[in-house]
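If your schedule permits, I should be very grateful for your opinion on a structural question. Please examine both parts with care and let me know of anything in them that strikes you as inconsistent. The record follows directly beneath this note:
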Amino acid sequence: CGTPGISRHREFYLKCTEGDRTKLTCGTQQMPTVLFEPSKKTIEAAPGTDLLDAAQQAGVEINAPCGTKGTCGKCIVRITSGAAEVNFSDRLSPLAIESGYVQACQTKIAASPLTVHILEPVVKKGQFADLSADLHKIDSDLLPQTWQLNPITVKISLTVPAPTIDDGMSDLERLQKEIRKIWYDQEITLSLSTLQSLADTLRQDNGKISVTITQNANTLRIIQISAGIRLPENLGLAIDIGTTSVSVQLVSLPEARIIITRTDYNQQIACGLDIISRIDYARQPKRLEELRTRVLLTVNELIKQAADAGKVSQADVCNCSISGNTTMIHLLLGLNPAYIRLDPYVPTLLENPQLTAAEIGLEIHPETLVHISPGVGSYVGGDITAGLLCTGMVTDSEEICFFIDIGTNGELVIGNSDFALACACSAGPAFEGGGIRHGMRAAAGAIEKVEIDPETGLATCETIDNSSPKGICGSGMISLLAGLLKSGWLDSAGKLNRERPSTAIIVEGRQASYRITKPGDKSESIEITEAEIENILRAKAAIFSACSLMLKQVDLDFKDLGCIYIAGGFGHFLDLENAITIGLLPDIPREKFRYIGNASLMGSYMTLVSQEFRQKQLEITRHITYVELSTDPGYMDQYTAAL
């Protein structure tokens, strides 16, 4: 331990610092002290003692569910000072090793004092707005942990030694040598423009530089070099491209901190409310390019808003992860989506190649490698495989569970760690405000809860953020219909009661509408018609019938399910009892339901901050069997029954 610096071997790792020396008293080696942070507990332990055993003796709890085999990764801690002997597995990236992360069960105490930091979850309660509901929580074990933070593009500081007349090394070779002290046996490439500035940059501040590096298989690509060791902030974007709305999340990657989230309607709505209408619209190359331009305008405007609000440069964004259904990804990339809806329903691609931001048209660092979540089938895309990262159903669960994403398209997955089936149904945009005159997405001013007076039929409303009513969102529609049904003002076919007098029900010929709010001084009344109610009934019937048919495929009933995960942006304000009342969800014990919010965006976040989660997502994708409902002769029977 006498030489300052770092020495690595294939089996063991020894980290030494100035002042770490073996201390001898009367010829006997002193036992080093191990300090555990943040508890401040200490213990003296003989060199060669397993770190996990030392922690247990000190009263510090470190989980090791694999029985110290080193396979689970649950006992990872960080050594912040001192020396240790470590047997590394592939659970840790080179950068994690460089930062001092070790597996406690694979680490032995050396001869010097040691400080060990016990890790806390990266994502804490309240970091996601969607996690605020007390009833529905994401298991923290499913989220990326500190040691798993390893985005595909990183920013590091280096000091490259000055050239000498004797070493015979070029500027590039000296740079590559320093980088290989972190990454071994990697091919290192860079663009011509970066190479052109290399000589001057290395000499500006005595070899001190900041380097932005993209990791891709066994190749490292340098995409930016600047003089000095002040690193520009390493930023990333998690993006969810939905049929109706688009969400962009700006993330500071070193600590996986979410800076800001922005959401807006997808500008493609002007060309069709659902994916089928947009596929039809895209039949002409000119219109396909229009759809691509529209979604890029939406995404880039949200990127600008997020960057401006976070007071950061878009050029510093060097990581990006995108999730969306199969059609949305085709339209983003300008791929012809026509064959998605033509027998045998084959998309151009499901597992997407790595493309740069410049190739796609994203207004961030042009050389950013963009991760696009892999899909399962023509109508079950990367938004679902991203969402499944928020559950353990297809990776860790023995119970058979349901995953339901309620949006313009209803996507469903049933299964456990042994099998998984996925399908999709066209629910339409009603639950996201589409096709409803006064419909809107869940935003400030949207009516989210309605109570009906049984005697008068009049409504009392609550809005998101207690703002003045601007429209009604999906959860508000469900609350309204459930209230009208239970109070007798609406029948099971979705027809308003014309027999009882109410100032809220307006009859015009054969059609009737329900007035939710009265007109104000500067606003018109908010109403819903029987035709719009019929749209909602069709949407809920499509989802429920798909669930029933999937259960029939595996000879199960709703009562056999261990859990039902509900994903989708509008569901944050969803009242479970109301959803069951109108027949959107099955009438089973309420504790079996778990709401996980915009799981597509959250899954994009996970794959953004951790390459390990990208691999996990790919494994989930390959675990699922896709079922095409449109070819099942029993689907229409189930759908008609669910109406």
In short: The two ends are 75 Å apart (CA to CA). The CA atoms of residues 216 and 467 lie 48 Å apart. The chain has 16 helices and 33 strands. Residues 1-28, 124-137 have pLDDT under 50 and may be disordered.
